[in-house]
Design brief:
With 169 residues, the protein is of the alpha+beta class. It has helices at residues 32-36, 111-118, 162-168; strands at residues 28-29, 44-45, 57-60, 63-64, 73-74, 80-83, 91-95, 98-101, 146-150. The strands form four sheets. The protein has a three-stranded antiparallel β-sheet with strand order 8-7-9. The radius of gyration is 18 Å and the shape is globular.
Length: 169
């Protein structure tokens, strides 16, 4: 696949070509002609042969909501390329612009860019949007100070309180 509008420099650049291993998480099988004809698409997933690791590059379809509380949709013809920095069961934090996982000492993502961002006194002066999910003034998370955000793993229970309601709704 050829990359366009890639936000993963310096690792990947616009115009780079990558080979995607769809067998790790299990390939999705669907009728491309149904998609092109704007018909409902039935998707089947094959069993995965492995697991993702931190810093793996992943190709996926970006999910979005369609005014429904019970489902998420995605465009199967539009792909995103991003780096996996968090795994199920991890707790993500960003401190002074640097990604951190509790109990993990690995460098995550583009470490140089994280430090460049951390060294900017007022990133918004450079057109950088600093507010971030869940966009709540009481929580006050930014792209430089974020979390902790627990990433639940299968069968894990998340206790509900005000902050978790904002995060997991």
């Amino acid at each position: 696949m050829k990359l366009e509008d890639c936000a993963m420099e310096p690792t990947l650049k616009d115009g780079d070509r990558i080979l995607v291993n769809k067998m790790i998480n299990g390939a999705r099988l669907f009728d491309v002609f149904a998609v092109l004809n704007n018909e409902d698409v039935v998707i089947h997933r094959t069993p995965g042969l492995g697991n993702f690791k931190r810093n793996d590059i992943q190709v996926f379809n970006f999910p979005y909501q369609m005014n429904r509380w019970d489902s998420v949709r995605f465009d199967v013809m539009q792909y995103y390329v991003k780096r996996c920095i968090v795994l199920p069961g991890d707790t993500l934090e960003i401190r002074r612009g640097v990604y951190k996982i509790r109990g993990c000492d690995e460098q995550l993502g583009n470490y140089s860019a994280q430090h460049d961002l951390a060294n900017l006194d007022h990133p918004e002066q450079y057109g950088i949007v600093v507010s971030t999910f869940p966009y709540d003034k009481q929580i006050g998370w930014t792209i430089c100070e974020f979390g902790p955000l627990p990433i639940p793993k299968k069968e894990q229970t998340v206790m509900m309180h005000r902050t978790n309601c904002l995060l997991y709704r």
